[in-house]
Specification:
Elements lengths: L2 H15 L4 H18 L3 H5 L2 H11 L15 E12 L2 E12 L3 E5 L6 H9 L6 E6 L3 E4 L11 H11 L4 H14 L15 H13 L5 E5 L7 H16 L3 E5 L11 E4 L7
Parallel strand pairs: 3-7, 3-8, 5-6, 6-7
Antiparallel strand pairs: 1-2, 1-4
Helix pairs in contact: 1-2, 1-4, 2-6, 6-7
Length: about 270
Amino acid sequence: MTPAEEWSLRLGRQLVELGVEPAEAERLAQDSHDEAWNSGRAPMELYGPASVYAASLAQAVRTAQPELAAGPAGEVVLRLSQVSKRYGRQLVFDGVDLTLRAGEVAAVVGANGCGKSTLLKICCGMTAASGGLVERTPRIGYAPQHGGVSDLLTPDEHFRLFGAVHRMSRRTAVSTGTHLCKQLGWRPKRGQAAAQLSGGTQQKLNVVLSELNRPDLILLDEPYQGFDQATYLDFWEQVFKWRDAGAGVLVVTHLLQDLDRVDHLLELHRPEDS
């Protein structure tokens, strides 16, 4: 067995351990192996350690959550019913309710440490709620506040990787990603790895990846960190374009000047502030 094959085998095993279905884990491992082969580089060189890369892949794969049936505009795409989160004895938040429909934008606000990012991770299935019920549409996109991209991959490689998760062809994934980049005023340079991008540009890549598969629900955790003023305005215009196109959008934000245009405002409080 070659080192590349050993790396792919470890990747598949790690994905299964992280909760990915075995058949899906095998497909993702094979796709990663093929991508490295086509690039002429070893998987370890291209992606890094299999265990680290598996964590990034598993994050991109939708984890099991109660799902709402996909439907036309106006259908519920996310419902939170008395959702709570606790770490040991520490209560992060409690009794959170929200109903978000297709074609609506909801903003989550609150002081630092009140659990805004944790709530979004619960919405996308990365973290389990301690109580309550989370229901969501099967087709979601998620842009985290930090991380979310691989330093060693170029934007095109990210598009192909995420496209593979969504069963998109490589050509469609790259063309779609490139088009979405232009809407945020960014044209990726061929061959430039994510590590060479500024923090704001990496966040643009995160936003593009969240919309790559045209999801019914888009979850955004303050993704505009590092944006200049023009890009920040472009970002909010894009949010409302998603709404007009029929997607439900949930945005975590600490900036209040744009909230007069959103459909729902969810304010989280620390338990001691309630």
